[in-house]
Write a structure and sequence with these properties.
heterodimer; A: 166 residues; Alpha-D-Glucose-1,6-Bisphosphate, Chain A, domain 4; 4 helices; B: 112 residues; mainly alpha; two-stranded antiparallel ribbon; 5% strand
Chain lengths: 166, 112
């Protein structure tokens, strides 16, 4: 049920979808409130986000700084463009690794789906060139492995949840 | 080391991406690349030059030939960027599941 998908669309888009067992309102809060963002937007094990700026209003600043427990880190800056409480977030972001990556324009939507929420994140890269770069590496094959692993984790979670449900 | 910009530009061309895909299967000489791509030798050589400048391929000398192979470092540089995105997404969403469950519990609206 909670399977994540990532596919290309047109020349410059990447679309990620994921289902969650929560309301659109909860998803919206988890994507905009710093204290909640810091709990989950951490990527692989070992990372924390000591700095999280999220000014959830049009023109508001975004700054996420990640640090690894073994040292090192990177950050992301961005700006909010449009916010529709509980249903839509539009922002632009770039990562500093330390060189800035090209601007990524992101539209995130939360739509009610049964008892949960379907999240759709649509990324628009500046041009075909940039997206081509993302796709021409072994992204697809590498991701396949991650998905299989993720699927395993989610299935385990789902079955343990079902088992403990009254 | 080539910058990400130069690497992205090199990857922008579909022929060059196809050449990289071919080299992923093993090294090849210019002549071996001319045939499947139906391009002239100078055209292939030009593409190889761009890929080499971007640090995506290396060439060694073997008699009169100069076979090309994928450069591990060039691929790794982009992979780092992609790995960030890939891992950040997959692992973060698992964590978000927990955060959402916690939020639901606090509000007394626990979902099954």
């Amino acid at each position: 049920m909670t399977k994540m998908t990532l596919k290309t669309e047109g020349d410059r888009h990447l679309v990620v979808t994921r289902k969650f067992a929560a309301s659109p309102e909860a998803l919206y809060r988890a994507h905009t409130e710093p204290k909640l963002i810091q709990k989950w937007m951490l990527g692989p094990e070992g990372w924390t986000m000591p700095v999280c700026v999220s000014e959830a209003n049009p023109g508001g600043k975004i700054r996420f700084e990640w640090t690894h427990e073994k040292g090192g880190g990177f950050y992301l800056t961005g700006e909010y463009m449009e916010l529709k409480p509980d249903s839509k977030i539009v922002h632009v972001e770039r990562m500093f690794l330390p060189d800035p990556t090209p601007d990524n324009h992101v539209e995130t939507r939360f739509d009610t789906d049964g008892t949960g929420t379907l999240m759709t994140m649509r990324m628009t890269l500046p041009d075909e060139k940039t997206r081509a770069a993302m796709l021409s590496t072994r992204m697809e094959s590498g991701m396949e492995t991650s998905y299989v692993r993720l699927e395993g984790v989610l299935q385990t979670e789902a079955s343990s949840k079902q088992a403990s449900a009254p | 080391m080539a910058t990400l910009d130069v690497t992205f530009a090199a990857l922008a061309d579909p022929t060059r991406r196809a050449i990289l895909a071919r080299l992923a299967l093993g090294e090849a000489t210019v002549m071996e690349l001319v045939k499947p791509f139906e391009l002239t030798q100078p055209a292939i050589s030009q593409h190889l030059k761009v890929l080499q400048n971007a640090g995506l391929i290396t060439r060694r000398v073997q008699g009169t030939k100069r076979p090309c192979q994928l450069a591990k470092e060039g691929v790794t540089e982009i992979d780092q960027w992609l790995a960030m995105l890939r891992k950040a997404l997959a692992t973060s969403y698992e964590r978000l599941d927990d955060v959402l469950a916690e939020m639901g519990t606090k509000k007394g609206r626990k979902k099954k």
